[in-house]
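Subgroup meeting minutes
Present: P.N., E.W., G.H.
Scribe: E.W.

1. P.N. recapped why we're keeping a running log of single-chain structure predictions: easier to compare across weeks, and new members can see raw inputs and outputs side by side.
2. G.H. added today's entry (359 aa).
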Amino acid sequence: MRILFTSGFQHLPQMYGGLMSNTHELALELSRRGHEVSVVCGLSKDGLIGLQTRLLNRLGKRNTVHDGFLGYRVYRRWGVFEALADVVACARPDVAIVQQSDAVRIARELARLSVPAIMYLHDVDFSLVSAPLGELHDVAFVANSEFTRRRYRQRYGIESSVIPPFFRDQLYRTPTRPEAVTFINPQEVKGSDIALALVHACPEIPFDFVESWALPREQRALLLGHAKACPNLTLSRPTMNVRRFYARSRIVLMPSRRDEAWGRVASEAQFSGIPVIGADIGGLPEAIGPGGILLDPDGPIDAWIEALRKLWHDKSRHDELSAAALAHSRRPEINPDFQISALMRLMSRAVGRSALLTA
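Output recorded in log:
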């Protein structure tokens, strides 16, 4: 089957995040299983990828320009919606998986181009939804968590199948030499204020802050100032090799202040038996499960300090939650064979439904 993933956001390595990782790992796995996978995504002019794409646009046939260094074709465009007809003509997809952002316009354009589509809901930021989803009568919906499914049902009256984020566990599983608390994506909405309070309150504990989304200049300067003032804090740039940070993680911190649709980092960490201290919000309880501690992000910081110190210093408590985290990572819902089978059934139905409508 020829499968096209779409997103109005940039893709790896121009942008890092759960959506990009999920798309990447699904694309690799589907390719490994014999499918022809392409991605169309946004483009930034920055960096080597931006330069290379601009050069290829000048030298070659613009509508065919793509790169393949990730293991599948990636069409990077200034405007995904505007480029969609050309990309469809090149990739000739049997089905498309539409993802945020600009998803509704893209789904409508795919319908005009006679490409059946599934919409994969990764986020509950409804500002990214440009029109009522109920208007997309020929699109099947997939949510990445029960929480996401409930929120979209409440908001738009649609029903979704649930397929949690996809993980190629070999990218994350690693022997650990636990010597730090890891906080990935130190943004304000991810609870950087809570994480920094813990850094200052627990000088005996080393912290790794690892960037993911691009940080505003002022916020990055603030974090660098804290790192300079606190010997127990290290700030690292984004990387596709997060396993090297999990290798030194005793605890992963996820003090998010927004409704996370899932919480990919929690699952990544648990493949190596790393417990998570996270916010009791959104889909994080599903991702963390029994393999960690859930706390109120608006509650007293003392509760976070107490939980962190106990889990850091109490070996028996850490061993207990580490075993629970590892067991939680082996549940059927995030088994790759189960997930790929569920996704293939939905794609096959979409293709079959489209064939009936056009017959």
